[in-house]
Write a structure and sequence with these properties.
Three copies of one chain form a homotrimer. Chain A is an alpha/beta fold. Chain A is built from eight helices and seven strands, in the order E-H-E-H-H-H-E-E-E-H-E-H-H-E-H. In chain A, the strands form two sheets. A five-stranded parallel β-sheet of chain A has the order 2-3-1-6-7, sandwiched between helices. Chain A has a two-stranded antiparallel sheet with strand order 4-5. The radius of gyration of chain A is 17 Å and the shape is globular.
Chain lengths: 194, 194, 194
């Protein structure tokens, strides 16, 4: 019997992560029961149970309370029993205090991922995508700064891999490669050595 | 009420870390009670309690004894009750055995920093500053080697951030930017989301 | 009395790690009792005790069983009482699931290395060596991809250093430098501050 997989999928804004995950999940669902969860959404669901009304209120909570929410979300994800659970989240979030780790050791210990996948793309393509996606009010960054974000991502994902023991793959999602990239992710998560 | 902050400030020799911290502390002290501690100095104070006379004796201690001193220093820093404690230390120290980690997980677990700040600068400026600062017998390194030290620093600070859950900021302190850099650090440490 | 050393030596295929370790061990054995162990070999010895016949069977075991084998191997290495134990292993292994960490935190906690040494070389030289070493069926990679492997290695070794508190050295082993590189490793492992 194939093992259950719990894969954390990360990537900076503009790499096309969410669309890619949806596509990979469609492919995976033909063979094994697959669920996609967005970490931030699960956190907000937990926040609503505590009486919060919107995401702005969540962002204004104390660090301590936000951590509690993160822990609850991680715990809930761990309890999901599907064959494959794909967790859509961030390695870091840009804040006034600098880069905030989205996957601190504390959360990794709770979630115990079996796989880490980092989605990347050419920095110039990421810059173009961010420019055309004005609706989401993303920061417009130069290709050079985007390269730095990718560099930090690579460092963080390798570090997460050492902490968890899970393998990490870096999947390129350049323009016109979405199908191939989704197939790569599906292949990784269907892989089974038992 | 604003939370207390315990910020670890790191940077390779020649980035102007100590002067910058002093300046940032002056700014911060106008609003909240701020203390600066130099990790190595606290270690030496603990060593003196054990009867050591000078820093050379400390450097010649066994690894085991040095670790005990580090733990004691970290513990003492954790007990400081000021609104903001800035800890001036190193990510790594160049030794005959290679790069020695100045902030191993063991110490991070004791100190539980709320913030990590890495001070950086243009490698050529760092090289120039090291050349003119002969009194401190610093190693003269090429700009290329300094770039490598900065690269390793970035890796280590990201790794520390994942271990502690604390956000990390990289502050540039190029010639003529000291005021701006200090203001940036002050802004980070006054930031409060509660 | 000099402390015992347990050094983890890592390096990507083609850096000449195994030959280099042998040479360094010869030098070290003139002064202190030194043993070299290959992590994968110790793992396979443990697998044979469980009835496995060959390494292919080992690779087909479930993740869970492989982890148990790794833990047993790490435990056995920790029990070795020689003055210097050099552990020949990998920071990561290329698999269908991506980069598999050869030194996850779990194993580092068991082995508690005193030193980390990463062997590196010029990417073009590594590419040439891989081409001429067809017998071992190594992947032929471009110098550019080899550079990426070296970059990931640097990140991982720094991360291991923070987790263990052990210093890490990066030793260059370019063509014609083997003697010097071996002497450097010997010097690091004879170093003693007690």
């Amino acid at each position: 019997m194939a093992e259950n997989k719990r894969a954390i999928i990360v990537g900076i804004p503009g790499v096309g992560k969410t669309t890619l995950i949806t596509r990979a999940a469609e492919m995976l669902n033909q063979k094994r029961k697959t669920t996609v969860v967005i970490f931030g959404t699960i956190m907000f669901e937990e926040a609503k149970k505590m009486g919060l009304k919107n995401r702005d209120e969540m962002r204004k909570m104390s660090v301590e309370d936000q951590r509690r929410l993160q822990d609850l979300a991680a715990q809930r994800i761990t309890e999901m029993k599907d064959d494959i659970v794909m967790i859509d989240t961030h390695l870091f979030i840009n804040t006034d205090e600098g880069y905030y780790p989205g996957l601190p050791m504390r959360l990794l210990s709770i979630m115990k991922p079996t796989n880490m996948v980092m989605v990347a793309a050419d920095p110039r393509e990421i810059a173009e995508r961010r420019k055309s996606d004005q609706t989401r009010q993303r920061d417009i960054a130069s290709a050079e700064n985007i390269q730095k974000e990718l560099d930090i991502s690579r460092v963080m994902v390798a570090s997460c891999s050492i902490l968890t023991g899970a393998p990490f793959a870096i999947i390129m999602n350049n323009d016109g490669q979405m199908g191939e990239a989704a197939a790569n992710i599906a292949k990784i998560l269907l892989g089974d050595r038992s």
